[in-house]
Amino acid sequence: MRAPGIVHHGTRRRRAAYRRAVWSGAEVLVTVGVVLLLLVVHQVWWTNRQAQHNAERKVQALEREWGAPAPGSGDPDASAGPGAGKDGEGKSAEGKSGAGGGGRSTGRLSSSGAGRAGVDSGRTRPRWSQAYAVLGIPRLSLRVPVAEGVSKPDVLNKGYVGHYKGTQQPGQAGNFALAGHRNTHGEPFRYLPRLRRGDTITVETRTAVYTYTVDRTLAQTSPRDGGVIRPVPRSTVRPSYGYSEPGYYITLTTCTPEYTSRYRMAVWGKLTAMRPR
User: Fold this and answer.
1) DSSP track, 126-193
2) Which residues contact 153 (CB under 8 A, 6 or more apart)?
């Protein structure tokens, strides 16, 4: 007969230590997983809730400041606005495009080469990061503040839409260009791809309501494609997209695809009506 195996106390201790190490490692992994899950929930859900609530309160504050929301602002009974430039082929506007905006889903693009003309005489230039208008998109059931600048902490992360410095103001000849988050922080432009030609976009200010009509969409371009926010918007990456003559334009930009900041998309519209508040 074979003698029964002898298990030394040292072997038992090593096995027990190994089991404790495995168990402790599993606990650490579970804890890290829970923390990461909470961070994702905070980023995707809580920041959205905070930013959306903040944006809604700001819209209400602007309406109180102006007296009341403009009646029928989604489809104002307005006289025809200035005619936009005719579509057509032509050479793309020349000029350098600066570095693209960095943050996740901000939709920022370089404004280098954008309109240099100032605001109309008699108008006050909005202060940096100040909300001064309300953007309305009926198809998306969206009403969101428009603030000066495209800073993430001061504008976009608050759930606002940001106005590119150097582009025109609402109703002015040239290009009124805006950026907004597609995901997180209120994500006002999450459903921007749903816009179709003929949809209306309104911009309400203290003194007037401007109605733009969606005309064209550039589904994907580089973050460095500053041509899409020039006074006569035309992509420098895909020159077949854009315009060749001056007009009264609006440009909405955001990141694409969802949950990435690899590319940008742009929606263009033309001013079709305006009226005083």
Assistant:
1) PPTT-EEEEEEEGGGTEEEEEEES--TTTTGGGT-EEEPTTSPPTTSSEEEEEE--SSSTT-TTTTGG
2) none
Give the chain's domains with CATH numbers: 64-276 (2.40.260.10)
Best CA proximity match to 137, nearest among 79, 77, 203, 182:
203
Cα separation, 163 vs 119, in Å, equals 13
Mean pLDDT of 180-205: 96
Judged by DSSP in three states, 273 sits in strand
Model pLDDT, residue 11:
77
**H/E element holding 78?**
none
Read off the pLDDT of residues 143-158 as tens digits, 9 standing for 90 and up.
999 999 999 999 999 9
Instruction: Point out the residues that are catalytic.
Output: 181, 255, 264
Please name the residue that has the structure tokens 């990435």: 260
Q: 3-state class of 13 per DSSP?
A: helix
In this structure, what are the phi and psi dihedrals at residue 44, rounded to the nearest 5 degrees? -85, -35
Q: What are the φ and ψ backbone dihedral angles of 202, each rounded to 5 degrees?
A: -110, 150
Contacts of 135 (CB under 8 A, 6+ apart): 142, 143, 144, 145, 146, 161, 178, 188, 201, 202, 203
In 3D space, the residue among 221, 215, 231, 213 whose CA is nearest the CA of residue 253 turns out to be 221
